[in-house]
């Protein structure tokens, strides 16, 4: 980035320079909410256009003629953030106090009932195909914040690995990995590294230097998990038969990875997965699980804390006769050694299911409790005290109920945890496998579909819940911030109410009083993340083709919010 010697010039050009960085990376920011040129009452303060230098002050006068002088905090997307505990419905007179004199706003401003999201950047990504509102196929993306929240890693369907400055929205790293989907990402700013987990013929895990952009090391999953070629190369979903990184987390100077390969070998379904802990600097494998070779199941998700790694492993099919590996189970590993400490196998929910389907619904809170959401509508909460999976509570979230003779349910596909709270999110309209062959359909959701459930981790008690307006996509959490996203509806008659619903779970009162704001997007959300400190949110929106097969709404773009 070029630097000017004049302090005044640097102050004036800072927002423009951030814009130029982003454009150079192919992802220029824009602001779909039109909030850049006005005052915003945001979470924990007021955001104003202009410079955020320490010598720029803001006088805030309240209705009782009390004036408080504020100093600008960190810049947010080229604007100044002034920490201030404003009250909804109150009137405030704002007067900026730069060295050259005061600038007053034209009239008193009324604080809203809820804070407004501050758009740091809405960065357009590469061109991708549009998914289908009724059949899916939206392009993947992956997001991960650095531990300190200053950087955001992004992996895209077109094979791009990028990093963004979360204060300016500027793109500070970009690398194209041809012939791959960057399925998962992680970033370690302390170590100066960014990681890419591929979905590709080779299934590489790669580490890059954030400053030099040089590749530091790579590990080929296909050497252990095998590789395959799609039966139909023109099929969008054929890519998912490649070996891939299904979950990945930076851990201090290390990297923990779940490698995954699920494919058809002739008429037979095959599944191979394995957990790895790498030295982030060298790529040396510190441990693997299982230690003696890949697991013949799909490791779809894991979470970790200072002591344990909890993971889910399953396959869709009924195991073959003599197969001693559980069809679906949660495993608890020692984080330092990778040694298996405990497991809990699940039995199918009869008569509607022959197997136990699982996906991303697994998360730890900060107090040693584990939530597991199953795709048959059940949930489970465990206590991990003593390195065991002690069942605290079994949950009936959205198990099958009959509507006009058809059993419908909702899968519990996402989970998150923070403090002593656990969050499980269910998805939309599904018909149970037991209805197969009856030729019946139903135009109704399960009454707990698209619902966010909030539990006390220690007791498993339901604290509150919230129903989203359309098909849920994911849930993410940071300090005092909880976000849930929506995706395509799979039905042309459902509302296309895409975007984020954001809560402060620590707020007192009814669920509606916990809601901070809604942030709408034109297209469905395909990736979501919240920084650990709760200050920053990020989401990737994707284009989707409507039921007329011609109209496309939404864009492939990254939203960074404060």
Written description of the protein model:
By secondary structure, this protein is mainly beta. It folds into two domains: 34-110, Immunoglobulins (Immunoglobulin-like, Sandwich); 119-561, YVTN repeat-like/Quinoprotein amine dehydrogenase (Methylamine Dehydrogenase, Chain H), CATH 2.130.10. It has a five-stranded antiparallel sheet. Strands 4, 5, 8, 9 and 10 form a five-stranded antiparallel sheet that branches. The longest helix has 18 residues, at 7-24.
Largest sheet: 5 strands, antiparallel
Broad structural category = mainly beta
Give the oligomeric state of the chains in this entry, treating copies of one chain as homo and distinct chains as hetero.
single chain
Topology, number of strands: 48
Helix percent band = under 10%
Give unreliable regions as ranges: 1-30
């Amino acid at each position: 980035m070029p630097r000017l010697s004049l302090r005044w010039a640097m102050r004036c050009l800072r927002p423009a320079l951030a814009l130029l960085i982003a454009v150079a990376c192919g992802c220029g920011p824009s602001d779909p909410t039109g909030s850049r040129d006005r005052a915003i009452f945001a979470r924990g303060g007021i955001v104003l256009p202009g410079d955020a230098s320490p010598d720029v002050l803001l006088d805030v006068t309240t209705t009782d003629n009390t004036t408080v002088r504020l100093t600008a905090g960190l810049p947010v997307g080229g604007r100044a953030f002034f920490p201030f505990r404003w009250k909804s419905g109150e009137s405030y007179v704002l007067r900026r106090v730069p060295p050259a004199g005061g600038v007053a706003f034209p009239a008193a401003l009324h604080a809203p009932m809820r804070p407004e999201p501050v758009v740091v950047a809405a960065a357009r990504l590469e061109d991708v195909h549009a998914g289908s509102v009724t059949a899916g196929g939206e392009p993947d993306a992956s997001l991960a914040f650095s531990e300190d929240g200053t950087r955001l890693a992004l992996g895209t369907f077109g094979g791009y690995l990028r990093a963004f400055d979360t204060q300016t929205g500027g793109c500070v790293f970009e690398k194209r990995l041809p012939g791959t989907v960057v399925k998962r990402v992680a970033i370690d700013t302390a170590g100066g590294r960014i990681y890419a987990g591929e979905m590709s013929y080779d299934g590489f895990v790669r580490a890059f230097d954030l400053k030099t952009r040089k590749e530091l090391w790579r590990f080929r999953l296909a050497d252990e998990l095998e590789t395959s070629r799609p039966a139909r190369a023109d099929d969008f979903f054929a890519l998912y038969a490649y070996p891939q990184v299904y979950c990945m987390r930076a851990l201090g100077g290390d990297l923990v990875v779940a490698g995954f390969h699920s494919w058809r070998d002739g008429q037979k379904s095959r599944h191979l997965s394995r957990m790895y802990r790498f030295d982030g600097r060298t790529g040396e494998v510190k441990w693997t699980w299982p230690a003696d070779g890949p697991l013949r199941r799909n490791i779809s998700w894991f979470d970790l804390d200072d002591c344990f790694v909890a993971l889910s492993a399953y396959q869709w099919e009924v195991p073959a006769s003599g197969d001693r590996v559980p069809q679906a189970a949660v495993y608890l590993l020692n984080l330092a050694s990778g040694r298996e400490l405990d497991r809990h196998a699940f039995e199918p929910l009869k008569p509607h299911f022959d197997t136990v389907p699982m996906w991303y619904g697994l998360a730890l809170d900060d107090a040693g409790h584990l939530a597991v959401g199953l795709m048959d509508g059940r949930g489970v909460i465990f206590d991990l005290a003593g390195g065991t999976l002690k069942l605290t509570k079994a949950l009936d979230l959205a198990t099958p109920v009959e509507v006009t003779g058809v059993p419908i349910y909702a899968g519990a596909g996402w989970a998150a945890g923070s403090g002593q709270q656990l969050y499980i999110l269910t998805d939309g309209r599904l018909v149970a496998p037991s209805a197969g062959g009856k030729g019946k359909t139903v135009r109704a959701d399960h009454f707990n579909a698209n619902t966010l459930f909030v539990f006390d981790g220690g007791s498993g008690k339901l604290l509150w819940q919230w129903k989203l307006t359309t098909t849920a996509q994911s849930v993410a959490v940071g300090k005092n911030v909880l976000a849930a996203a929506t995706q395509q509806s799979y039905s042309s008659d459902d509302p296309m109410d895409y975007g984020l619903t954001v809560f402060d779970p620590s707020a007192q009162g009814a669920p509606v009083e916990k809601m901070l704001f809604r942030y709408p997007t034109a297209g469905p959300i395909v990736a979501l993340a919240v920084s650990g400190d709760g200050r920053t949110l990020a989401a990737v929106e994707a284009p989707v083709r409507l039921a007329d097969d011609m109209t496309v709404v939404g864009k492939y773009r990254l939203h960074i919010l404060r």
